[in-house]
Design brief:
single chain, alpha+beta, Immunoglobulin-like, Jelly Rolls, 3 domains, seven-stranded antiparallel sheet, six-stranded antiparallel sheet, 4 helices, about 25% helix, Filamin/ABP280_repeat-like, Ig_E-set
């Protein structure tokens, strides 16, 4: 169609009938109407969520006021003034959140009303039988639809009622200390879509990684409260073991830093929860120490010690203590539990000794060798004499008599623990009251990492158990080999140290 009456086809103008043009324009307009109708529906859904959050704020206010009352009622008269202060703070925070939500709802209503008005105008135009009039209205309507279609809006409520908390924990027991510190209405305005998680550098196996977490409100401003009280940060490794990470740095600007040492390669995922609500997650890949994105393999050379046999046992997962994890192939031991693991129903499962034994014993005539790769990451400093691991040989009936096999009949072991005199994490082998080996392994401080390979030569014929570190002999222990002995391993204090031990083919 050409609106210039002087145009002619002979002059290169394409002349289309008004009816054809209007039909196509109506078709295009109807398609835009459908798109805007969908957007309007989404806006209405978000508006409903916002209204629900306003309702939840009221419910939350009542619930938290009840919590405040139940806590303060048991306190003495000096807390009465605190009660009013807390309620005032709560109401202010509720009012602030309500105001933000009402503003968002008002904005959404305005956008919805604009779309409705535009749709009504378009419907009127579509019903018009005056093609000339429609052709004049179509362009302004389309421009208006284009503007409405690209008008952005947040698809989640700006505030969450679930992000308000009144901390009642230990209020009565620590009254004097926490009266002006912890007995307060806790509130934050974290908007999950704007949570950022950054990992410094390229994560590598057995290497400390720093992870930065920034929480923002719906205006992309860093949260202005210390959220650590209600914050939990988890990482899940490829074998679905879930570990809670501890904050190593935090401030009021929302910049939070955690440390993590991956003991396996592949895909990991970090998740951030605030008061039980998921506010951010990120997947990342851990490479091998050499930088290759492949599964690292552990290997070692055969230990030449006369007629020495190869390792023939694996870690027994059916007997392992419920609080440790054994890999499916029995080659790996960790002092933490797996998300996918289920408690064993075996009546023989170890209850005291926090570990497991080998699948096969060393018989009285055996001469054999085996090796273990030992890695641990200190997440928090250990307390006095706290143990990380125990590796040894034990008579089957003596394994589960206590938390440790050290000191039990027909048991010999080496222990990694916090040594008070060294104020460090040391390896100690003792027998009959005599220290045969004492060697420092790592500093007793957060983010200390230790990794080495221990090799063991078992000579049941002559009653000797030889311990080596990186093929360097540490000591030789006399053992009673009148009965078969099982190799044993245990791991402790998972909240402070993450331990992983791999059997190596030697």
């Amino acid at each position: 169609m050409c609106v210039l009456t002087s145009c002619k086809e002979s002059e290169g103008h394409t002349i289309i009938s008004l009816e054809e043009t209007v039909a196509q324009l109506k078709l295009d307009l109807e398609q835009q109407m459908k798109t805007l109708g969908t957007k309007k529906h989404e806006i209405q859904k978000v508006g409903t969520l916002v209204e629900r959050e306003v309702e939840k704020l009221e419910e939350c206010k009542e619930m938290l006021e009840s919590d405040i009352d139940s806590t303060i009622d048991g306190m003495i008269i000096m807390l009465e003034s605190k009660r009013a202060e807390l309620k005032t703070t709560l109401r202010k925070k509720i009012d602030t959140k309500r105001q933000h939500l009402n503003e968002q709802k008002k904005s959404l209503d305005g956008k919805g009303a604009s779309i409705s008005q535009g749709l009504r105008l378009a419907e009127t135009a579509l019903c018009s039988t005056n093609n000339a009039a429609f052709s004049q209205l179509e362009n302004p309507i389309r421009k208006r639809f284009d503007r409405l279609e690209h008008d952005p809006f947040d698809r989640k409520p700006h505030e969450r009622a679930a992000q308000i908390k009144f901390d009642t924990l230990n209020a009565k027991q620590a009254l004097q200390k926490i009266l002006n510190e912890s007995v307060e209405v806790w509130s934050t305005s974290v908007f999950p879509p704007f949570t950022t998680i950054e990992i410094y550098g390229e994560p590598r196996e057995n290497t400390l990684a720093k992870i930065s977490i920034c929480l923002h409100d719906y205006q992309k401003h860093p949260v202005d409260q210390d959220v650590s009280a209600g914050l939990k940060i988890f990482v899940v490794d490829p074998s679905e073991k879930k570990m809670e990470l501890q904050l190593t740095k935090g401030n009021l600007s929302g910049d939070l830093v955690v440390s993590y040492v991956p003991f396996s390669t592949g895909k990991h995922e970090i998740s951030v929860e605030l008061l039980g609500e998921d506010v951010g997650r990120k997947a990342f890949i851990v490479d091998c120490a050499d930088g290759k994105n492949t599964q690292c393999e552990n290997s070692c050379q055969d230990i030449e010690n006369g007629d020495t046999g190869r390792r023939s046992f694996t870690f027994d997962s059916t007997l392992a203590h419920p609080n440790v994890t054994i890999s499916e192939n029995g080659m790996s031991f960790e002092n933490i539990t797996s998300l996918s693991s289920s408690p064993s129903l075996s009546a023989k499962r170890l209850r005291r000794f926090k570990g497991t034994r080998g699948s096969l014993p060393f018989k009285t005539t055996d001469i054999a060798s085996y090796s273990m790769s030992v890695r641990f990451w200190v997440r928090q400093p250990l307390g006095k004499s706290q143990v990380i691991f125990e590796i040894g040989l034990a008579l089957e009936t003596s394994i589960d008599n206590n938390h440790h096999v050290d000191g039990q009949p027909f048991c010999w072991s080496m222990v990694g623990f916090h040594h008070p005199e060294c104020d460090a994490i040391c390896l100690v082998v003792a027998h009959r009251g005599q220290v045969l080996c004492h060697e420092k392994m790592a500093e007793n401080r957060a983010d200390s990492i230790f990794q080495t390979t221990f090799s063991f030569n078992v000579d049941m014929k002559n009653g000797r158990w030889e311990i080596l570190k990186e093929n360097r002999k540490l000591c030789s222990v006399e053992i009673n080999s009148d009965n078969p002995l099982y190799p044993v391993i245990s791991g402790y204090n998972p909240s402070k140290v993450w331990l992983k031990v791999n059997l190596k083919d030697c």
